[in-house]
């Protein structure tokens, strides 16, 4: 199925541009005819031709591409028929058919809204509801502007009749449609050409409805041929969208990244608030207008505040996540080398005035395990070893993965406490590791460097160097652990024998012994 879609897309890319140019040229000529030739019959004929052509293109696209979810396209076809029927009854028949034109128009809105809901529902955003909140803010802002410019003037034009109430209902439906459109735009990708064309058609529908609402409000008088043009553009655009291979994606599940609409909703909501305030400031509002405008303002401002708070929380979480990733090793969750070097300065109260001990831990024979079982098992061993080391130390001690199979523990401990901690760390490796490859026994060697209270001049670099040298001395003579300041008294002085472990390669040992000397 994926191959056929790819081949279909490739064929479209080769010939689609030519067909698009021809279709757009033909539709443009046909749609412009009522504007150039003022004829009622011509406008009706053009509208019927455009609607019929759009339905034929939708049927052709469904038969050619066979989408897994064809229902949204059937609903778009039904919406086009309903809107066209309502337009014919309203603009091209006597006035006594007025209830039916509204019925068909509302049915077109319902079919269009249901189609948008069907193709938006499978687009999962996880637990993030910011996109929904953004779309709701845009809809509320549009509803506020609609009340100010359209609904209130329509209701004030005369007696409250069913026709007037229906005319005032259309801006509300347009605000709901704009909410769905905003959410669909926010969750669409650049590759979804068909969906972007459908968006263009919905925008044309909204523009046409805006013209009808302005005429109903008595704001301006617009010729019927000009009001008809956006609807004709919408029909033609949806028909072309159905011919594109990406029409199969409409209504299919798709994972959405929630970061797409970060600041758009706030800017649009503020712009709509300002646009609504312009005619309100300095004018006298009646009681109904005051209640409605105040309620919509309150809802919109609450939504903007909630959205702003969520944006601040998201930013704070992102900063904490970025800081954690910068300071921690992703395999083990321990501090990395750079964070270890900054540890005494970041929490100076915990280290000031106390002795400082650094334990350098290296796994014996890790290279053999890595070569025998592979890097995946080696990473598994590193992660398990890090977890055991973390359990042996106190919560406030700094534990880091220094690199490869080397770990560092930095703690405010005296000499005797450091020896006790080293014994605990060695005992943590007595029990073999249960890995995916089976039971893997491994031991460790520990080098210890101690200094007095933190008012001395020793740096973390000095402690790492000294503890590294002591660790290689302990590894060479199978001591388990060794203090750096006792290396000059002989390798066995002040150290506890430990079970023999595999020695490191000679080249690496010789290089480290030169550092120790």
Task: Kindly describe this structure.
The protein folds into three domains: 1-125 and 197-252, no CATH class; 133-186 and 260-327, no CATH class; 337-516, Reverse transcriptase/Diguanylate cyclase domain (Alpha-Beta Plaits), CATH 3.30.70. The protein has a five-stranded mixed beta sheet, with helices on both faces. Mean pLDDT is 79; it is low at 1-5 and 489-517. The protein has helices at residues 2-36, 40-65, 71-91, 98-120, 130-155, 162-186, 193-216, 224-243, 264-280, 287-327, 337-346, 348-351, 366-373, 375-392, 415-427, 460-476, 506-516, and strands spanning 123-124, 254-255, 355-364, 398-403, 406-411, 433-435, 438-440, 443-453, 481-483. Helix 5 (130-155) packs parallel to helix 9. It is built from 17 helices and nine strands. The chain is α/β, with parallel strands linked by helices and 517 residues long. One of its GO terms (molecular function) is diguanylate cyclase activity. It comes from Nocardia aurea. This is GGDEF domain-containing protein.
Tally the beta strands.
9
Strand content: 5-15%
What series of H and E elements makes up the topology?
HHHHEHHHHEHHHHEHHEEHEEEHEH
Mean pLDDT: 79
- Whole-number total of structural domains: 3
Structural class: alpha/beta
* Approximate helicity band: 55-70%
Which word captures the global form? elongated
Radius of gyration: 37 Å
Summarize this, please?
This protein has 517 residues and is of the alpha/beta class. 66% of the residues lie in helices and 9% in strands. It has three domains: 1-125 and 197-252, no CATH class; 133-186 and 260-327, no CATH class; 337-516, Alpha-Beta Plaits (2-Layer Sandwich).
């Amino acid at each position: 199925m994926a191959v056929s879609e790819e081949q279909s897309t490739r064929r479209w890319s080769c010939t689609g541009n030519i067909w698009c140019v021809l279709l757009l040229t033909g539709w443009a000529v046909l749609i412009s005819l009522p504007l150039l030739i003022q004829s009622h019959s011509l406008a009706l004929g053009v509208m019927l031709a455009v609607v019929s052509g759009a339905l034929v293109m939708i049927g052709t696209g469904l038969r050619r591409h066979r989408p897994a979810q064809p229902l949204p396209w059937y609903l778009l076809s039904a919406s086009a028929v309903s809107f066209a029927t309502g337009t014919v009854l309203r603009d091209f028949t006597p006035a006594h058919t007025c209830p039916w034109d509204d019925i068909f128009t509302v049915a077109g809105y319902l079919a269009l809204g249901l189609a948008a809901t069907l193709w938006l529902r499978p687009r999962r955003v996880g637990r993030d509801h910011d996109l929904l909140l953004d779309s709701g803010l845009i809809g509320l802002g549009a509803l506020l502007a609609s009340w100010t410019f359209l609904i209130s003037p329509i209701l004030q034009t005369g007696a409250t009749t069913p026709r007037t109430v229906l005319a005032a209902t259309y801006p509300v439906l347009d605000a709901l449609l704009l909410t769905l459109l905003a959410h669909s735009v926010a969750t669409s990708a650049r590759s979804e050409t068909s969906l972007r064309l459908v968006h263009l058609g919905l925008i044309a529908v909204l523009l046409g409805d805006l013209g009808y609402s302005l005429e109903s409000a008595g704001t301006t008088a617009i010729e019927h041929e000009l009001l008809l043009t956006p609807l004709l553009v919408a029909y033609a655009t949806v028909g072309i969208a159905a011919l594109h291979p990406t029409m199969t994606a409409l209504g299919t599940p798709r994972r959405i990244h929630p970061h797409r609409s970060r600041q758009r909703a706030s800017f649009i909501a503020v712009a709509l608030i300002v646009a609504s305030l312009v005619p309100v400031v300095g004018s006298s509002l009646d009681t109904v207008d005051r209640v409605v405008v105040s309620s919509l303002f309150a809802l919109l401002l609450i939504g903007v505040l909630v959205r702003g708070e969520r944006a601040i929380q998201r930013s704070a979480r992102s900063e904490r996540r970025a800081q954690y990733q910068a300071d921690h090793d992703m395999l083990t969750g321990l501090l990395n080398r750079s964070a270890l070097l900054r540890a005494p300065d970041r929490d100076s109260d915990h280290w000031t005035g106390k002795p400082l001990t650094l334990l350098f831990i290296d796994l014996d024979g890790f290279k053999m395990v890595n070569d025998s079982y592979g890097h995946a098992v080696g990473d598994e061993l590193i992660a398990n070893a890090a977890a055991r080391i973390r359990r042996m130390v106190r919560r406030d001690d700094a534990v880091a993965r220094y690199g490869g199979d080397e770990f560092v523990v930095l703690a405010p401990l005296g000499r005797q406490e450091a020896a006790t901690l080293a014994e605990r760390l060695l005992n943590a490796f007595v029990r073999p590791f249960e890995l995916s490859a089976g039971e893997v026994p491994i031991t460790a060697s520990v080098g210890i460097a101690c200094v007095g209270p933190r008012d001395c001049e020793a740096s973390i670099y000095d402690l790492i160097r000294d503890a590294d040298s002591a660790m290689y001395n302990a590894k060479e003579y199978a001591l388990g652990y060794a203090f750096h300041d006792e290396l000059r008294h002989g390798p066995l002085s002040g150290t506890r024998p430990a079970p023999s472990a595999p020695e490191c390669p000679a080249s690496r040992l010789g290089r480290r012994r030169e550092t120790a000397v």
